[in-house]
Design brief:
54% of the residues are buried. The chain is built from 15 helices and no strands. The chain has one domain. The longest helix is centred in the middle third of the chain and has 38 residues. Helices cover 85% and strands 0% of the residues. Keywords: Antiport, Cell membrane, Ion transport, Membrane, Transmembrane, Transmembrane helix, Transport. Its main location: membrane.
């Protein structure tokens, strides 16, 4: 097996960071798909188009989170079986998970087309941007299956310890997306539709390219007839891991979508500010989310290998890394909130900039809360207790949504901003207490 990182042996910090860094860079690069659209649209088309792309981002994050959750759950299965050195079961799991998630991705694509208009009404999208938002979304929906291909094969490779190759394919795709965005919008004058088409083309290139790479470079993972049987135990394990992780991811992003609906009720200026600031916010804490996913792979491989003392040692070292990183990135976002906003918004849009700065300084001061929460998600998923990740997500998002509705009526839009970190810290407290009472013995 051509694994880049066997996380069950060697120096924990070196192994974990060597695996995590490409994962971090890869997810940051993946965010550039929508960020490039935001930059091009905000700079060259206008505020209404910027608000439309921003609202679309929350919706697409929710939809793709469903697929990402399924793929992450499968990756936990791949890591556990890889730690057990059970390649036969790993390959059977590949077949079952690919068929299940692939079919679901197609169903999600058609359902998104059919329900597009109703979704915009639920999100309280202002009438003046519904047309351009619908045009943008219907093209973006075409890329849902490409999102499945990329995330499935990248999570397969990460599950067996290779986090570098998914990054390479993603970098190529993002560079292509930038070039196509500028070409379709500035040269062909395709407007917001051109930005969407550029994104979809780039997504398919990364997804199909990665699938071909796995087939060529990993002949030991090519499926034979005996690997394509429906094994009930394997299907059950994948269904539980993928289903619960999918539920956790979709609940998390559904809560964000509900918050987006509250934000939309405040008008186009608030929408545009939120659209930009939430992207900056997401990119800022994305590395620690990916460190949590790398940590999850580390835990899963060692869980499969039965190395429980190494797991406890890894938890302590990973926690120190997360705390230090979050303090650093919090300082950066808090200090440079205004310049970061001005990357995406023209200087004359002062109201949008000021609202975004307010959001970023509240969220940016609290990244340690989301950093620890991502570690807890990864840990419980890796030890085959994904239901606990769902519980923590429900707590975090439930509190966030309830407080957003209540506080926004009392202190205005700033109440929405404060509801988010409060939800993080309460979920952290529950997850840590459960670990201390149940597992730290």
């Amino acid at each position: 097996m051509k694994s880049k990182q066997d996380l069950t042996v060697g120096n924990i910090n070196k192994k974990l960071w060597a695996f995590a860094i490409p994962l971090m860079l890869g997810n940051v690069m993946q965010q550039f798909y929508n960020l490039v659209d935001t930059w091009v649209v905000g700079k060259y088309i206008g505020d209404n188009a910027l608000a439309a792309v921003g609202s679309s981002y929350s919706l697409m994050t929710f939809l793709t989170s469903v697929i990402l959750g399924l793929c992450l759950g499968s990756s936990a299965f791949f890591s556990i079986t890889f730690g057990e050195k059970n390649i036969k079961r790993l390959k059977n799991g590949m077949f079952i998970s690919f068929v299940m998630i692939g079919i679901f991705s197609l169903i999600l694509t058609f359902a998104s087309f059919y329900l597009c208009g109703r979704i915009m009404k639920i999100l309280q999208v202002p009438y003046d941007i519904q047309g351009i938002m619908s045009e943008y979304l219907k093209w973006i929906f075409v890329g849902i299956f490409a999102t499945f291909l990329y995330n499935y094969f990248s999570n397969l490779l990460r599950g067996i310890g290779n986090s570098v190759i998914p990054l390479v394919f993603l970098c190529i795709s993002v560079i292509l997306n930038i070039g196509l965005d500028l070409y379709f919008v500035l040269v062909l004058k395709q407007g917001i539709r051109g930005a969407a088409i550029a994104t979809v083309i780039s997504q398919y290139i990364s997804g199909i390219g990665l699938m071909i790479y796995v087939y060529i470079r990993y002949p030991e993972l090519r499926l034979k007839y005996e690997d394509t049987k429906f094994v009930k135990r394997t299907a059950y394990d994948i269904a539980i891991l993928s289903g619960m992780t999918c539920l956790q991811q979709s609940v998390m992003n559904f809560g964000i979508l509900m918050v987006q609906g509250i934000v939309n009720s405040f008008g186009t200026q608030i929408m545009a500010a939120f659209a930009v600031s939430v992207k900056i916010d997401t990119i800022a804490y994305m590395p620690v989310q990916d460190f949590g996913n790398a940590f999850s792979t580390f835990i899963a491989q060692n869980f499969g290998a039965g190395k429980y003392d190494r797991i406890k040692d890894g938890i302590k070292k990973a926690l120190k890394s997360v705390v230090l990183f979050c303090i650093f990135i919090s300082a950066i976002v808090f200090i440079f909130a205004k310049p970061l906003m001005m990357i995406f918004v023209n200087a004359e849009s002062t109201e949008i900039i000021n609202i975004g700065v307010q959001y970023l300084r509240i969220e940016g001061a609290c990244y340690i809360g989301i950093g620890i929460l991502f570690m807890l998600y990864g840990y419980y998923r890796a030890i085959n207790k994904p239901s606990m990740s769902v519980v923590l997500t429900v707590i975090s998002l439930g509190i966030r949504v309830v407080l957003a509705y209540v506080l926004s009526r009392v202190i205005g839009v700033v109440g929405i901003w404060w509801s988010i970190p409060i939800g993080w810290f309460i979920a952290d407290a529950v997850g840590i207490c459960f670990y201390l009472f149940k597992f730290d013995r």
